[in-house]
Amino acid sequence: MKRIQIINGPNLNLLGKREPTVYGNQSFEQYLEELKSQFPDVQLDYFQSNTEGAIIDKIHEVGFSYDAIVLNGGAYTHTSIAIADAIRSITVPVLEVHISNVFKREEYRHHSFLSEACKGCIVGFGMDSYRLAIEATLKF
Ligand code: DQA
């Protein structure tokens, strides 16, 4: 069975409540149940933290043994060289995802420190960005 770690960064614990016009009305916990039923043959583990160091620790923990990491770094995407270095330090491929189309938004969201360390990026498909990322991991 493939093992995929989903990691959500800061403020993504508030999905469903946070800026619903941008991020939708569904909590990640609700969406995760849908994802699990769509991928019954994949072990999907979920971790969320509002803390940069905790995200780095989780990347280190799973980064040599899982099949893939699906990472939404939230705002750390645009600031964190430390998370980018963590991604470069491990062997497991990381797929960067974003719910919103960051390129249609404020200019400070147009740059990601994480992208160049990631295998690929899926941006702007709402919660479906996570499903698309998991689909991609099944091909490698
Ligand atoms: C986000 C986009 C980021 O710019 C923002 O800071 C988030 C969510 C997204 O999924 O669209 O917290 O990563």
Q: What's the alpha carbon Rg, rounded to whole Å?
A: 14 Å
Task: Please tell me the total number of domains.
Answer: 1
Classify the fold: give the CATH topology: Rossmann fold
The first-to-last residue Cα distance is 13 Å
State the low-pLDDT regions, or none: none
Give the cofactors and ligands: 1,3,4-trihydroxy-5-OXO-cyclohexanecarboxylic acid
CATH superfamily: Dehydroquinase, class II
Extended strand count? 5
Per CATH, which architecture? 3-Layer(aba) Sandwich
Major sheet strand order: 2-1-3-4-5
**Mean of residue pLDDT values:** 98
Give the tags.
140 residues, alpha/beta, five-stranded parallel sheet, 5 helices, 32% helix, binds 1,3,4-trihydroxy-5-OXO-cyclohexanecarboxylic acid
Describe this structure in words.
With 140 residues, this protein is of the alpha/beta class. The protein has one domain (2-137): Dehydroquinase, class II (Rossmann fold), CATH 3.40.50.9100. Helices cover 32% and strands 20% of the residues. It is built from 5 helices and 5 strands; from the N terminus they run βααβαβαββα. It has helices at 20-23, 28-38, 52-62, 81-89, 128-137, and strands spanning 2-8, 42-48, 68-72, 94-98, 120-123. A 5-stranded parallel sheet has the order 2-1-3-4-5, sandwiched between helices. The chain is globular and about 35 Å long. The mean pLDDT is 98. It binds 1,3,4-trihydroxy-5-OXO-cyclohexanecarboxylic acid. Residues 11, 72, 74-75, 77, 98-100, 102, 109 line the site of 1,3,4-trihydroxy-5-OXO-cyclohexanecarboxylic acid.
